TrEMBL record:
The entry's keywords: DNA-binding, RNA-binding, Stress response
Organism expressing this protein natively: Chitinophaga sancti
GO biological process terms on file: cellular response to heat
Superkingdom: Bacteria
InterPro entries: HSP15, S4_RNA-bd, S4_RNA-bd_sf
PROSITE patterns named among the record's database cross-references: S4
Keyword hit for Ribonucleoprotein: no
Domain RNA-binding S4 stretches: 7-68
Region described as Disordered: spans on this chain: 97-132
Identification of the protein by name: RNA-binding S4 domain-containing protein
Amino acid sequence: MQNTEKLRLDKYLWAIRIFKTRSQAATACDGGKVKMNGNNVKAARSVGIGDKYEIRSESRKWVIEVVSLLANRVQYAEAIKHYVDLTPEEDQQAIQRTASSFHTGKRPSKIGRPTKKERRDLDGFMAPEDEE
């Protein structure tokens, strides 16, 4: 894309894969989750090369600088060439800590409820002898 064309901020954030959908990017802009120089920016704002944005998504905090414009969504390997990640080191480490302790809701193996076999053994052990 040529640098002289206008590109909406929500479309750019979607194209570089910060957000999964363009509507999520627009909602984040409207909700004050995207800032430029400490000020909230609207989704329709034009993106320029050299702009720096602070972005809070559901999963992490970003600080990016626009290197080149990208209008269409491309592969991640291609998308990362269009911005520079300036996120402070302590924020990146916080992301790694939360990722390592991320709880999926599944119970760890061998902990908690008994397996089917263990349950049968317990039923046999707990059953009164006159029932058998």
